Amino acid sequence: MGGSGGSRSGLLQAVRPEEQQDVAASPRRRVVLPAAGALLAGAVVCDFVLTLSTWTGGARTMGLPAWPVLVTWGGQLVGIALVLLVLVALTALLGRVWAALATVLAVALPLAAVNHTKLVLRGEPVYPSDVGFLSQPGFLGSMVGPGRLALLGLLVVVPVAVCFLVGRVLARRHPRPHRRVDPQGWRRHVLTRGVVLGSCLLLLQPATQFNEPGNPWRGAYDRSGVVWRSWSQTENYLFNGFVAGFLYNTHVTAMEPPPGYGPEAMEEVARRYQRAADRINRGRTPGTLADVNVVLVLGESFSDPLRLSGMSVATDPIARTRATMATTASGSLLSEGYGGGTATMEFEVLTGLPLRNFEPQVTSPYQMVVPDLPSFPSAVGALAADGHRTIAIHPYQTQMYRREEVYRAFGFDQFVHDTTMAEQTRLERSPYLSDSTAYDEVLAREAASPEPLLAHVVTMQNHMPWADWYDDPVPVAGPDDPDVRAEVGTYLRGLSYSDAALADFLRALRRSPERTVVLFYGDHLPGLYDDVLPSDPARTRWETPFFVWDSRGNLARPQPLTSAGNLLPLLYDVVGEPVPPYYALLERLRRHLPAVTRRYLVTADGTEVADEASLSPRVQGLLDDLRLVQYDFSLGHRYALDAMWPQG
């Protein structure tokens, strides 16, 4: 006993006098309130920084004031409460307020910077599905640039260092209980931390299922007065706060079963469009595509700068493409994105399924729908069943938009990418493989394949950022910012190189003894035009060129404004290939409503339709049938797949 008491006395003497006082007097009253205040201040700062990044990056795109005067403040308070719970949980886990603050700030500040950058360059905020890009630091670095990367590093290092220094000072004044000095206090301390951590995790867990019916956090936001803007995720982030927008875009069932869905309903739909296909196919020759190479080319950021009234350029950078469009079935494509969204356009072209019919949180089917399934119906399977060898060609990394998994689900025989392409040509100082490299890969594959080829090509040459890559950027007037003018000039020079490469590719195909049909389309405008777009009609931001070209000869066939899902039915029409019942459905819809996107419904005469309810019963019926088919093909039981779109 005496030895034990002496040992304890020695430990007490080893602790500084002020620490003995803290241990004896229980410092909780002096510590808890300042700690709570620090955590609350940290939650407010984090939420404010994230909200500010959204407004400074996105308000200009939406034509709104650069300060969040229209934010639903009730929603902001719910967001602050969520951040505060995360901070309290981390404090309980790590045992130090400063460590919790440093951890959250080290995440929130770079996230705000990335969110701002993505809004400026692509017109959309950071989504939960973007976490996949963290596995591609090289790509992220090339998008952001060394200057912004250095700033990003400072945004992590500085707050962590400040929190660490402040924490060291406060730790001397308010030490935690020592296990040997105050075992009872230490046990209370550990138990309290455990209870607090468990309570916070229980409160936070429902946030991981934010979009499930009856979710309490979703209910808290609803009661706070937020309005969920399903038509625009940028507006969700702007008006409801970053935290609300981010949670709204977490996991959700991609599509609920439409009313009446079942085997009988799908059998009736299949019969209806088999009859429609029989009528469309009168006069068409079965097997027309059986010996024809089909090349689908997505031109990265390929657009028509001459359609922008707020900008003038010295020369037409796509003069050859414009000449081709004048002699083919061609027109303007209504894109789903501005400055980004390439994979969504791929998805709609290959599947015919519009993004509009999925839940609004589904911003990228390539990342959020297709990889979760072992297979997915697409034109790849349909043409493979017709005897085509199927190849995807993308001169970049395989991880982008999880393409390797998606192409496997679609059924491609092979995926040729940056490290497996025969050529590795880059133009001047560009970091990307050139368009001509991708086209030469197609020509080589066609020559080597005894079967007809389906080549799905996604180019990369004109991808952002547009730095000082070329010696002779195209002179341009219009953008006020000289840096933007320089970027636009570089982009336009790359566009002219793409224009020349495409013309050379078509010339080579025309000389080949094999017949080839080419569908070419731009996926979206580059995110460069915010200075000039306000003077243009709103829809201009979303329109890109497309054409269908046949090496055997073409006729000029101007097309109405079209959405991506209608491009392959148009190709079948141009070639004279009999359509399967699924394409008969898309063809019927194209005649009445050729452009269907999440933002717009546009009729054949170019009229924008504000609401589906204003459409004729016949067109509404077509849209309802498409929803049934979309659910059946994607998340349903595929009752009608074999009857409507054989996949082999």
From TrEMBL:
Annotated CDD domains: LTA_synthase (cd16015)
- Which Pfam family, any one of them, does this sequence belong to? Sulfatase
Q: Which part of the chain is the Sulfatase N-terminal domain?
A: 293-576
Swiss-Prot/TrEMBL keywords: Cell membrane, Membrane, Transmembrane, Transmembrane helix
Matching InterPro entries, A to Z? Alkaline_phosphatase_core_sf, OpgB/LTA_synthase_biosynth, Sulfatase_N
Membrane-spanning residues where?
Answer: 31-50, 70-90, 97-114, 149-170, 190-208
This protein is called what? Answer: LTA synthase family protein
Which species? Answer: Nocardioides taihuensis
